[in-house]
Batch of 2 targets.
Target 1
Amino acid sequence: MKGIFNRLQCLLVLVGLIFGLWGQSLSVQAQDVAFDITRLNIDGQITAEGKVQMNLVYDYDVSFMNGALFEVDYGESRIGNYQAGIIDSKTEEFVPFEQNYTATAETFSVNDNGSSLEFRLYYPAEDEQVRFAISYTLDGLVTNYLDTAEYYQMLVSPVASDGYSVSARIELPGAIEETNRFRTWAYGSPRGQIYPRIEGEQAYIEVDVPQLDPGEFVEVRSLFPESLTPNNTKFVESEHFQEVVEVEQAQVEADQAKYQEHNQHRSVAIGLMALLGVFTLFWAYRFYFQEKKRQNPHPVHVPEHLYHLPDDLTPAVMASAVLRSEANADDLVATILDLARKGFIELKEVEREEQGRLSRGETKTILLSKRSDAPAEETLMNHERYALQYLFADQREEISLESLEAELKASSTFAKYQEQLWSRFKDYAAIRGQMVRGGLNEGRRKSKVWAWLAFVGTIIFGVIAIALVQTLSLKDLQTERIVMIVTIVVWCLAILATILLIYLAYQRPIVSEQEDKMRKEWHAFARMLEDIGQFDMREVASLALWEVYLVYAVSLGVADKVLEEMRAVYAVEELETLTLPGDFYTHPYLITHVMRQSVHESVQATQPPPVVKNNGFSGSNTGGFGGGFSSGGGGASGGSSAGGF
């Protein structure tokens, strides 16, 4: 009997264990896989044997995933020597995974179906950024001819959803003296750019695509001297160079003809819009005033000055909701001060190290340090965390604004990374600002569209009307002149009316009751800070609150007024009790000049240099010497695609 009881007890424990594991499995399965691929960086090397060594790094922004999935469509070429792993976020070194079929963490498996190779990288991740890396060798993408060698590869297969930015550098096995024999073309994204580059003893192909859209791909074709790949066994005994150049030149002409045809259609559309010019002006005004009345029938009254914070918003969110469409460098300065006030970082005035090169005549800079007793970063909003990452890249504990500015100007790679963080800071603040305003105001957007339609329509209508008047053959010359003068006067009045409407749409935009109240309150608060000399600071708020107000004053553009008044009203001993160092109050130029100027310079350094276009139309082939992508292509192999599971 006792044995039966023991066996029954064991059975119950086993059943409970099974149900527990099953429930845990259901819990795991209930977690949805969610991630964004933000960037793909490709480094390729063509060897003297005509093989292409490919090294791909995908940047993932992961909410939750079990691993990454990559597929390489190698077609009729041969693939081998593959590896997979991640790039360590601290050391920037490749960490290889072991290849097996255990599906355990930090392993990978491959599946070859004869024309494509599937990589499955097992790497569970949640709320983090991961850089997956795969490498492999492709043989058969380079063909030698009697007069040239041709490299033809699909770098990125057509993407299924919103894509990512792509940058590629494909190195050739040596230098090229006859630059006319080095040609490049690319196909796919109309925003893509490709250039043949020669630097010293190294020739390479440079590809840059800011953003891939659904259905777009990246394909590269290049001609270079066959002497660079003397050991290539893929050889065709015929001349090929001129044939390819003629084919691509035909594509250039086709793109130009397509562009001209597009312009002709656009001209017809403009002519049709001219007929609607007068009507759009009437309807634009009608829509603006009716929608404005509908959304805010009883505008709220707010006093001239408001002596407290209107709402609990961060400076960047406030600025994006009230002052401008997106946060700027001043809002990043305000966010840095706010992070210091909240105890996440410490600010300190220090001497500059590089006098004369970046100092712009200044002798001081700001040292930023992470505080060991800082609160948990989970209490911060996303844009505040992006600001921290922007300041303390590579997990560093402290950095001066001078050093950050110097690093950005010295390293384009670092600048690109920081530009992504800066963009995320602005984008998140803009999204939150829009939410605070009550979401996207469709009426405001439509009023701006109507205003610009009315303006364009009025301009076109007037030009056509004047042209028609000039064709009239009136017997009375005086009457003809009067008709012309009246036409011009009416046209000018219509233009003035459309300009007034545009001004109203942007400077007196359509707002809801909620947004109207919020805007008026923050502007009243800003006026109070602007006129602070007219009030007793001690009666308006406590000293601790004035430190909070100072943060918002930076975004509102009145920090100098607040600092000046605080220095005049409060003793040095009182100011030193605040979170920010006392030097920032006794020497206010540290915020209003040194800190603000340095942050503006660092943000400016993250911006990519302007692209100079060689032609007047986009998405076209430029004859092999670099430029925009062509509308052709789609016939090469070797493309990769990415996903997750």
Target 2
Amino acid sequence: MNRLYTRNQKNNRNNFLRDSDNRFKLSDMILEASMDAFLVVDLEGEILEVNEVCVNLLDYSPSEIIDMNIKDLNICRSQEEIKEYLNQIRAKGIDRFETQCSLKNGEVKELEISAIFIDNFEVPIVNIFIRDITQRKHRQYQLEKAYQENKEFLDELRKQNNRINTILQTSMDAFWVMNTDGDILETNEAFLNLFGYSLLEIMNMNINQLDVSKSKDQLKEKLKEIQRKGRDRFESKYQLKNGEIRDLEISVTYVDCLDQSICLEEAIFEVFARDVTERKQKEEELRRTQKQLIRSEKMAALGRLVAGVAHEINTPIGIGVTAISHLVEKTEEIIKLYNENKMKRRDLENFFKSTMETAKITLRNLNNASELTNNFKQFAADQTDNQRRKFKMKYLLNEIMISLKPKFKNTKHDVVIYCDEDIEITSYPGAISQIITNLTLNSLIHGFEEQKKGKIKIEVVEEEDLIKIIYSDNGKGISEENMDKIFEPFFTTKRGRGGTGLGLNIIYNLINNFLGGEIECNSKLASYTEFIIKLPKKSKISNN
């Protein structure tokens, strides 16, 4: 039986609990009835008596507890509130509630209280049974929290599913789900509208009945490949119910049934498809237009070069004709003197001297014309032939600059080439010639527009499997707002003044689409413009 601990010094109104038979009767009744903590308080909240379970629960010594008021334990109510509450218990006779209690070590316990008012003695008292429900409350909190979290998760999952279904059904892209054998399991409205089948028809179909770009075996291998990769994006041709063939851009995701985050009965493929037939047609039309523009620009550039070279060739030929004409006159004069027997030694010496000078002038100018003709012949052949061959970069650059010599006539602009003699490339010299020619003309027309003396620098370096060409000029540069537009077709700052806006666009297409390289531009206004071109040392054979 539990021992009861009693306050040793209380006022006379409590002496009956220590000395009378009532104390023993009360103690026996309480201790036999409950295994819970128990204490007795008066209507002021003074603790009169406690049992051992209460001492162990509150972690105070018996003497400490007996000297305390109930307010010293309860952290929820003030002394006035406790006194008022005890009076309410007195009025009601009995009450049960939950509260919190602070232990000696500061720990807070959740308690269930059962209070009984007793007025059978000289002093009214309240018997209080206390049960520790801290663990129960904690478990209850955890359960409520788990329930709330699960409820929120389920609500969110339900919302997500509704949102996903809404998105899929309102999506403009066709969507379907199929198993690993290619059987179609589910579709959206856009899929049915695209293919023209009813839902009942499509549910009995396999993807190999729609994809006409691959055989059954190829489709099977493709699905296995997507399984290994997890996802894929590609283009393919699909046949509609009316027999029409459409180009579709396909995005596929593989979802494994073993995925712990997704509950599936079997592995599936989720597929989005976008009809890109019209886009492909427009791209093809654009490619044809670009090729026509490139050919037109090539011929126009070649025409300009022919005119320039013709003018340049006319100069040495004209000098040669003049020199020969002069020689003919001198020859006729010496013949006349000879026939008339008037020729003197001095006349013959002067004739020989004039003949030698005239011959040298003629030979020199004819050689210049011959060199220009040969260089232009090779350059023109490269421009029109577009044959892939192996060549030395420095030789090609020198050829280009010779062909552009007429453009630099009557200017003080300089061209400097830094290129090792041994740098070779297997590519299309015509395309590279057109690129360098367009860049050079761009510098002359735009970069040096307001500049009397400019400098063009062309540097070629090797980088593993690449050839890097760095073309730069110290012209007026390109403004920041125009930098993003320079490669766009028909963009020019000289609209109405002879600018077509195709030069840099043709360069971009030649480098990226024809030669398999890349180009970038750096520029600073009123300072410089630099183009960095990277080309493969061995260009692939182009189908263009």
